[in-house]
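Running low. Got one?
___
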Amino acid sequence: MAKFYGFLIIIFLAALSLLAYLNKGTVGLTIWEGKTYELPIISLILISTFTGIFSILIVVIIKDARRYVEYWQKQRQDKKALKVQEVYSKGRDAFFASRYDEAGELFQRTIESKPSHVNALLRLGDIYFSKDDLAKARDFYTKANRIKPRSVEILLSLERLSEKEKKWQEALRYLDNILEINDENISALYMKRNLFETNKKWAELLDVQYKIIKSDIPIKEKQKEQKNLLGFKYELGNHYLEEGAVDKAIKVLRSLIKADPNFTAAYLLLAEAYLKDGNVEEAEDVLEKGYNATSAFMLLARLEDHLIAMGEPGKTIELYQKAIQKDPGNQKLQFFLAKLYYRLEMIDYALEAAAAIDSALFDSSNLHILLGNIYERRSQHSKAVEEFKKAMKAEKPFMSPFCCAKCGYTSKEWTGRCPECRLWNTFALDIDGTCKA
C-alpha cells in the first residue's frame, strides 16, 4: 500500500513539473481594490489544489466526528436499553413466580427509565388486576393501549377488565376492535359469544355462532359448535316465548326440530308456545309426534299432565295403550300406564297393569313404591310392606326425578339445559336409575 501511495505522489509531482514547464508565465491576482499580486501560474494551481484538498479534509473530519458522536450516543442508548431490559427480565421472572410485590417494584423501575415500555405497563396492569385494584389496572392498560393501540394482547386485557367491572358494552367494543384487526380471531369470537350469552342476547349470539362455525377450527370442534348452535336456537325460542313473541318462538322452534328431530326440549317448548297461543290441538300433536320421534318419556308425561288438566283422562289411557301395542315389550310404558291408573284412582286397573310388568326387565324402586301404594289402597298391608322394603334399598322417590344423561346431575325441576355440564337436550326422566353418571 505504501508503494502505491509513493507511486501516486511521484505521478502528482511529475504532473506538477510538467505544468510548471508548460506554464512559465504569471497572472495577476487581485485580493482587494488596489491590491494586485503577480503570481506564477503554477503557484495559483497549487493554491487551488491545496484549497480543495483542505476543504475535502474538513468535510471528512466533520462526517467522521458526527459518525463518532452518533456511535457514542447509540452505545449509550444500547447500554441503557440493556439495563432496562435486565430489570424488566428480572421483573418478568418474579411475575411468573407469583412474587407480585417484587415484580411490581422492578416493573416500576422499568417504566421510570423507559415510560413507553409496553410490556412492563401491561404486566403492572396484570398485577393490579390480580389484586382487584381495577382502577390502577385500567390506568396501566390504558397507557399501554395509547402506545400500542392495535395490540391484541392489550385489547384482551382491557376486555377482561371491563367484563370484571360488568361494563358489557365497553368489553364488547374492545372485542370488536380485535375483530377489526383480525375478523377470524377465534378467541375473540368465543369471548364475544360468551358475553352475549351472559347478557342473554341470543339473536346477536347466533350471528357470532355462525362465524365460529365458518371459521377454521378442527372438525370435532366444528361438530360441537353445530350442536351448540341448536342449543342457542332453543334459548332464542325460549326468550321469544318469555317476551310474549309467540309467533317468533314457534318459527324458531319449528326450524330447530326440523334440524334435529331428536331435540326433546324443543318439542316441550313448542307445545308450550302453542298452548300460550291458544292452539291446544297443535300442542297435543307436537307432544305426540315428539314422542314418536324421540321415544322420550318426558313428552308422554307432559302430555299426560295436559290431558288430565283438560279433563280428558280417557284420551291419556288410549295414548298409552296405543304406544304399548306398538312396543309391547316396553316395560317402562307399562309402568307409566300403571302409574296413570293409580293417579286416576283406578286401583284395580293399576294393579293389573303393574302386575303385567316383568320385574326381571324392569326392577325399579319406583315400581315397588307404586305397588306398595296400590296394595295399601287395597288394604293389603302385608304386601304393601313387602314392596316398600324392596324399594327402600334404592332410596328413589316415587315421582321420578329428572337427570342429565351426560353427567348424571339430578333435579326436581325440568330444564332444557343441564346447569352442571351446560349441555342441551340431555335431561330425561330417571325412571329406573339409568341416568347414573
Summary: The CA atoms of residues 230 and 360 lie 38 Å apart. Residues 395-399 have pLDDT under 50 and may be disordered.
